[in-house]
Structure formats: C-alpha cells, structure tokens
Amino acid sequence: MIELLFLLLPVAAGYGWIMGKNSAKNQAHQLNRQITSEYSKGLKFLLDREEDQGLEHLINLLEVAADSVEHYSTLATMFRRRGELDRAIKIHELLLKHPSLDEQQAASSRLELAEDYIMAGLLDGAEEHLVWLVKAGYKEALEPIINLYSQTREWDKGINMYEAHSELFTKPQHVKAIANFYCEAALQDNDTQIMRKAISLNHKAIRPLYELGHSAFTKEDYVKAIYYWRELISQFTFFAPVFIEELAMSYDKLNLTHQFHDLLNELLEKGGVLIKIKHCQALLEQGHIEQAIKFLTDSLKRHPTIRGFSFLLQLLAKQNNDIKDVLDQIDKLVTSYIATKPDFQCQHCGFTSHTIYWVCPSCKHWETIVPSRGIDGF
Ligand SMILES: [Zn+2]
C-alpha cells in the first residue's frame, strides 16, 4: 500500500504542475480576452462615430497593455494629420502621465505633445515642454524650439538657450539659425556688437558677415565694408550676386579698383558665371575686349550658362558694329528669358523667389536660400 502511495506521488506532482500551468494559461487567456473585448468596444465606438468614448476606451487599455505605447502614438499622429488636434493632445497628455513609460518614450511623447500644441497655436504650452526637453539634453527639441522662437521673433530667448546649452548644437543648420538670431537681435537693438558674437560661432554663417559689411557700407566706412565682404566672398563665393556691386563700389570709392580686379582673379576658379562676367568687365575697362571674348567663350564651352551667353552677346555687339542690331535683338530675348527665372532657390526644399530671404518661407530653415545655380543661375 505504501509502495502504491510512493508510486502515486509523482503522478500527483505532475497533476499539480499541469493544473497550475493551465490556471496561469487561463489567467493570461482571460487577460487577453479582456484586452480584446476592450479593443473591440473601443473600435466599435470609433466606427459608430462616438469617437470620444472610443478613445476613452482605447486609452484605458494602457493600464493593461502598456507595451502598446507605439500604437497610441501612431493613433495620435493620425489624428494630428487629420487636424483633430484636441484628440492628438488628449492621447499625448495621457501617455505622458502614464507611469509605465520609459525615459525615451516619455521624451518622445513630450516632443509630440509640443508639436500638437504648435499646430494648435498654443505656443506657450509648446515652449514649456520644449524647454524641458532641451534642459534634459534632448537634441530633437532644438529644431521645433528654434522654429517656435523664429515664429514669435523671440531672438533673446533663442540666444540664451544657445548660450546655456551650446554643447547640444552640433548640427550646422541649428548654429546658422542662432547666428541669424544674433543678427536679428542686433538689428532690433541697432547694436552691431551683438552681431560680432555670431562670427565666432563654431559653424560659419553667411549673414553676420553680410550684415556687418552692409552696415559699414551704409555708414560709408568702405574699409570695414571691404574687410567683412572680402571675408564673405572668399568663404561663400556663391553668395557674391547679393553684394558684389556694392563691394566693387567700395573698392572704387577708395580708388582701389585694381585690388578688386585682383580679388576677382583669385575667385575665378571657384566662382560662378557672375565672377567671370565681372572679370570680363574688368578686362573691357582695361581695353582688352578680345581677351574678354576668348575667356568667356572658353568658359561657356566648359560651363554653359544663359547669363554668360547674354554677356558674350554684349561683348560681340561692341566688337562687331555691322551686326550690332541683330546681336542686341537676340540679347533682348535672352534677357527677357532670364527675367522669368527665379534668382534665388532654397537648397533644402526647392522654394524659389526673386528676393533673398534669410529664413525660407516654405521650410523655415535659415540661410538655405541662395543665388540660383545651374544653366539659368549665377
Ligand atoms: Zn526651404
């Protein structure tokens, strides 16, 4: 009898194990059924257009299915895209309060919530969350907060943020934005000292040099204008069309035109067609028309451009008096064609315009609008 009991012990243990396993399985099964049922209820509400109740149900599910944070974020993004910002905000606010979120998930939800607020025009709310993220070292918050301060024209806030957290500014476009914030603040307070700070930033920006040159030029301080613009044209030769006339004039005012010609010679290799045209004009002033025609013809063979062709027509008209009228007529046509082409283009989004914008009206990036390039460009 005792032997029989011993024999039955493993059977009893096995039975207990199997029953226990089934019970755990049953519990999990029950939980799954509960989640599925809540999901179904939530979806049914949504389908019945009782969206508030549907959302409420789905959000309540977070209590039992915390691993589905991603799904809720996707849902919120969908609502935001559809312009249903109150719903997107509600989901992100609830997500942010949820204790099961890890640090990264909480930061992403906070960032998304700030984006909802921006779209809803609730800029103060957005700023609060973005500032929190920047202070916590999240670089992802830099772009939206820079855009926000650009929109509200709160240059000082942007500058203070940069000065307190400059280590986060590793992307050139963010540093360029701050350089422009310094320029805007300087223009607002009429204080070029502030602008000079922008020159020493770790990524070179176009605008501080341009504005400092421009400010000196308007004060007829041509030595200073040349100092800043020479630096600018050497570093950002493609930007020459914006100020080359004033730069030439500054040299002229100081009777240093020959130095301007030397500068053009230095820039011929990396400069666009405008530098080449200016070089030809210099040759023309010195009476070397044939040399100018040869230089431009050779250059156009390698890099054909409409503006270069137009100037070649003008040079040929000067040299060939008998066909001057015909050449002038062709040049008129070419010039009208050029006038239809945009002078500036955003390198980030492709936005085109006839005037320079420091911040792109379309993509909101700073200093991405530059003089047009290519066959129709400079
Ligand atoms: Zn753009």
Architecture overview:
There is one protein chain. Strands 2-1-3 form a three-stranded antiparallel sheet, with no helix packed on it. It has helices at 2-47, 51-60, 69-81, 85-97, 103-119, 123-135, 142-152, 155-164, 172-189, 192-199, 207-218, 222-235, 244-253, 257-267, 273-285, 289-302, 306-319, 324-340; strands at residues 344-346, 352-353, 369-371. The radius of gyration is 33 Å and the shape is elongated. It starts with a helix and ends in a 7-residue tail after the last strand. With 378 residues, the chain is an all-alpha fold. 70% of the residues lie in helices and 2% in strands. It is built from 18 helices and three strands. Bound molecules: zinc ion. Zinc ion is lined by residues 346, 348-349, 351, 360, 362-363, 365, 368.
Record the SSE blueprint.
Elements: H1 2-47, H2 51-60, H3 69-81, H4 85-97, H5 103-119, H6 123-135, H7 142-152, H8 155-164, H9 172-189, H10 192-199, H11 207-218, H12 222-235, H13 244-253, H14 257-267, H15 273-285, H16 289-302, H17 306-319, H18 324-340, E1 344-346, E2 352-353, E3 369-371
Antiparallel strand pairs: 1-2, 1-3
Helix pairs in contact: 1-2, 3-4, 3-5, 4-5, 5-6, 6-7, 7-9, 8-9, 9-10, 10-11, 11-12, 12-13, 13-14, 14-15, 15-16, 16-17, 17-18
Bound molecules: zinc ion (ZN).
Zinc ion binds at residues 346, 348-349, 351, 360, 362-363, 365, 368.
